[in-house]
Amino acid sequence: MPGKSSPIPAGSAQDGGAGEAERLEATAFSKPGGWAGAAVRTLAVAFSTFQLYTAAFGTFEQFIQRSVHLAFGLALVGLTYRFPHRRDARRTHPGDWLFALLGAFSALYVLLQYSRLTTRISMVTPMEPLDLAAGVILTLAVMEACRRAVSPGLALIALAFVAYGYFGQLIPGRFGHPGIPFDELVEVIFLSTEGIFGIPLGVSATYAFLFVLFGGFIMRLGLMSLFADLALAVAGSTSGGPAKVAIVCSALFGTISGSGIANAITTGSFTVPLMVRVGYKPHFAAGIESAASMGGNIMPPVMGAAAFVMADFLGVPYQHVAVAAIIPALLYFFGAGTMVHFEALRQGIRRIPRSELPSLWNVLLGRGYLLIPIVGLVYFLMSGRSAIFAGFWAIALTIPVSFLRRETRITPGKTLEILEWGALTALPIVAACAVVGVILGIVAQTGLGVKMASAILTFAGGNMFLTLLFAMLASLFLGTGLPTTPTYIITAALTAPALVKFGLPPLAAHFFVFYYGILADITPPTAIAPYALSAIARSDPSRTCWTACMVALSGFIVPFLFAYEPAMLDPLMAGSGTTVYRVVSVTVSAFVGVTMLSAALIGWLRVRMTVLERLILFGGAVALITPGLLTDLAGLSALMLVLGLQTWRRRRSVAAGPTDAA
After folding, report:
1. pLDDT in tens, 255-277
2. Are 130 and 223 contained in the same domain?
3. pTM to 2 decimals?
4. Does 66 map to a domain?
5. Which range marks the domain in which residue 613 is found?
6. Three-state secondary structure string covering 397-456
């Protein structure tokens, strides 16, 4: 427990954790020195400037915009994510230069041959030898960039899909197909709007890059420190305060991050040691932060690249996706909060004295102006402006806001640093979006998505719960070891069609697989966030992982809720069938049910629970979480019964002497 001699200072969370997050997300990153480093800086600043220019004055035709975007990305990946195990890590190998040049040239080939390629008849006009060569080189370059900057596993998956497309005639059963000839295969991957230059890369070339850049500008204002102090001021003095600080801080950081790992390391470097100091076990502290940080991917207004891809897949404005995420996101963080609240009561963890915490009024008065760009972003999105417009002007707002205080000023020198940082930070997104384009091209050409949907529906036998269960398991499996964006894109192509075919609204179906793609990052065997935070907490990675899954249990349940009652995704009641009653009833019952579920799992409500009380409360929680008036009444009856038993036992305990009651 921190004593009075060591108060928790304002601004105690440092923004430097973001650098550690980048290192963990991209262990092969190695910026060169000398003139090669100068070339990287120049390319990175030019990359960000190009993106800002097109955001301000209008994007080019999609193939031009995406080819330039990919050319910048491949060149920078080649020079910064280099061949490992060399003696001098700051020297650039000739092979890296060759990769950068070939990758950039093959990406720009579409631009250089634009007039000819856009007038040819797809799948009819034969490809020229140089077209085939450029297509093969770009496909290999994209896979190598993915291997370096994202994940070797994702690159191998893309290669497996290419093999599936070419050798389909050798596969028996429902998943077999006639096979795609080599030249058609190259054309599908290279020149179609469903291949490398498809929707995912389009999202990277517009919205995603812009919001990464916005995160760079906003974090240079010191917003992470503000979020930490706001969380301390609001939740620090409550039961289990430090754990709630971790949840609140992760939720706030998630509003502008969209990256679960960056969220975990940036906030975890501050919150995990604080939780351990006040009495939480190390594995529980790391598990709490892991679960809370993953929620950053689902927290509006900035939800990461996957949410922008979802908007394009569904053909709706991004703000529709952000609004739909509000209630599920709040429910996710509320569930984690109740879990740590009951755990703090069970362990008897003391509160942090108010004298050791920053004042909410002083924090808002001193640095509340830093929230202006975020308020502006939300205003632009909710007023019907495009995400590109909102992102650009939110970035523009950070400059005058930074000059309100001397210590936060973003000078021209700092602006160049942010432009470089934004471009280098976006490289894994560029590589991931390009390589999943390869996968999507094969899926579209072979009809694999339809075949997968048919298989899921056949195995489920027309049962909705089994259909959802199989879709959940498929999403968790497909997301093993992969970042959120490629996981969502793959599951959206292979799993979501089954849910849509069963009868779910497309938005609910895509949100369903989106959620489980995120939760794959905290589930075994490749739980990236828990393993990273277990190093900070010095805890057992396996125990940390299972604790994270328990704390995030509400996240595993929420998708089933909005699958059965899609009104949860329509809080503004824009849909024709959505009513106030439907939204309020499903929301209230879900929040009460999640509270009961947390209490049952921890074993504490008002006092320590008996096994019978836990079973009754668990059953009531399941009933409340299941939409329906009768199930709601059954769940509330179970809650009243357990509260009555707990009150009776507590009074008897007080009459008998000292108690461990809350």
Report:
1. 666 566 666 777 777 778 878 87
2. no
3. 0.83
4. yes
5. 573-657
6. HHHHHHCCCHHHCCCHHHHHHHHHHHHHHHHHHHHHHHHHHHHHHHHHHHCHHHHHHHHH
